[in-house]
């Protein structure tokens, strides 16, 4: 490989959340941190080079959005997803969750019902309730080796809602939704007058042979009744840049959202936001392909290791992302005991499955975006703990 993903990088002293928050979450700091969804690989070098070059000028003043920033986004979504986007459809947002919250406040009212599909990225639920909306749950159906949408329940629960937040691809289940599933969702939501927010931050991490389908591409109804959120932050390991964007094809929705953003000057960005996005999308194809291949190798390793050394813990192989959903239900433990097992016996910091919704009970989320040597050490600790019980 041209790029080195085996390098172990010491992130101490960088205020990394996955390290600094261990004491708060678990009361200890001696765990291998495999929880927060960023990668322990070096951020793509062309992004670091772009930031370094900008730092050659010592004035960190107000920064405008260059034409090249918009063009990089336009070119990327066209090349990877055959999605046609124009400049005026692109709205900068300072992160996906902040963007969802801002769009929720711009396009819905307090008390409005918002539907989500647990187990799902937990900030969907936080941002809904903390912004005074009413949370409606449509749990996904477990079908032996993965999740599917419960469309019968969806048709009933969506009635009276104003917003549906779609995780596309799905986190933590790693599902790449099929085009026909998305089209059915689009039809139902259009008929019921329900706006769709499609969080597609993991789109660029779709693993071959699967292919990501943007929600806005499945039909004209989907295109005109949705806001799509994207970012290079997950795929190129730059979440600290807080540089994301919303794609809004409907002019009326776009106008309302833009007015909200401009009223509070929430769309200004910072000195490194636009150049980092441009660098990722302009130079990132080869790096991303190699990163995905390395992640796939880690997933293969974890899956095989668990089948051999801890067969009651089953890895749900993700179709997208470096997040592996572990089914631990055969261990017969309560969620509290399961967490204690991973922390106190295996000395691993994973995400508690229940945080993604009650239906996540019995599961844990494992981040495998680390050098293979780190993943091997973690699996050996897990096997030792497993053997002890």
Write the layout of secondary structure elements.
Elements: H1 17-20, H2 22-26, E1 32-33, H3 45-55, H4 67-81, E2 90-93, H5 96-107, E3 113-116, H6 123-130, E4 134-137, E5 141-142, E6 147-148, H7 151-157, E7 161-167, H8 179-192, E8 195-199, H9 220-224, E9 226-230, E10 244-247, H10 251-263, H11 273-283, H12 285-309, E11 314-316, E12 323-327, H13 335-345, E13 348-349, E14 351-352, E15 363-367, H14 372-388
Parallel strand pairs: 1-13, 3-4, 3-7, 7-8, 8-9
Antiparallel strand pairs: 2-10, 5-6, 9-10, 11-12, 12-15, 14-15
Strand order of the largest sheet: 2-10-9-8-7-3-4
Share of residues in strands: 5-15%
Instruction: Compute the number of strand runs.
Output: 15
Order of helices and strands: HHEHHEHEHEEEHEHEHEEHHHEEHEEEH
Low-confidence stretches: none
Summarize model confidence as the mean pLDDT.
Answer: 97
Seen as an oligomer or otherwise, the chain set is: single chain
Question: Compute the gyration radius: what is it?
Answer: 21 Å
**Count of DSSP H/I helices:** 14
Computed structural class: alpha/beta
Helix content: 40-55%
N/C terminus separation:
40 Å
C-alpha geometry = globular
Main sheet attributes: strand count, strand direction, barrel closure: 7 strands, mixed
């Amino acid at each position: 490989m041209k790029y080195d993903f085996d390098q172990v990088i010491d992130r101490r002293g960088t205020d990394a959340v996955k390290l600094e928050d261990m004491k708060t979450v678990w009361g200890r700091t001696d765990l291998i941190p495999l929880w927060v969804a960023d990668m322990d690989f070096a951020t793509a070098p062309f992004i670091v080079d772009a930031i370094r070059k900008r730092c050659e000028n010592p004035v960190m003043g107000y920064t405008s959005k260059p034409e090249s920033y918009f063009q990089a986004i336009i070119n990327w979504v066209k090349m990877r997803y055959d999605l046609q986007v124009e400049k005026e459809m692109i709205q900068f947002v300072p992160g996906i969750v902040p963007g969802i919250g801002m769009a929720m406040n711009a396009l819905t009212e307090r008390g409005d019902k918002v539907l989500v599909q647990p187990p799902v990225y937990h900030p969907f639920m936080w941002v809904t309730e903390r912004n005074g909306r009413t949370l409606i749950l449509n749990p996904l159906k477990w079908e032996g080796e993965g999740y599917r949408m419960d469309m019968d329940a969806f048709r009933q629960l969506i009635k009276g809602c104003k917003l549906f937040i779609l995780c596309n691809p799905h986190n933590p289940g790693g599902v790449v939704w099929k085009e026909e599933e998305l089209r059915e969702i689009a039809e139902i939501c259009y008929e019921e007058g329900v706006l769709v927010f499609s969080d597609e931050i993991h789109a660029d991490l779709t693993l071959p042979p699967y292919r990501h389908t943007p929600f806005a591409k499945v039909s004209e109804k989907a295109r005109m009744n949705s806001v799509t959120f994207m970012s290079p932050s997950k795929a190129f390991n730059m979440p600290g840049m807080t540089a994301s964007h919303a794609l809004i094809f409907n002019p009326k929705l776009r106008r309302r959202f833009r007015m909200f953003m401009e009223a509070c000057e929430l769309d200004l960005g910072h000195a490194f936001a636009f150049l980092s996005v441009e660098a990722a999308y302009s130079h990132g194809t080869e790096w991303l392909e190699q990163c995905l291949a390395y992640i796939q190798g880690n997933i293969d390793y974890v899956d095989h290791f668990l089948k051999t050394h801890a067969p009651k813990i089953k890895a749900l192989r993700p179709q997208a992302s470096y997040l592996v959903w572990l089914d631990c239900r055969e261990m017969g433990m309560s969620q509290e005991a399961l967490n204690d097992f991973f922390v106190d016996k295996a000395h691993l910091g994973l995400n508690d499955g229940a945080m993604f919704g009650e239906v996540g009970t019995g599961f844990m989320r494992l981040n495998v975006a680390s050098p293979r040597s780190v993943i091997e050490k973690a699996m050996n600790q897990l096997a030792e703990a497993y053997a002890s019980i």
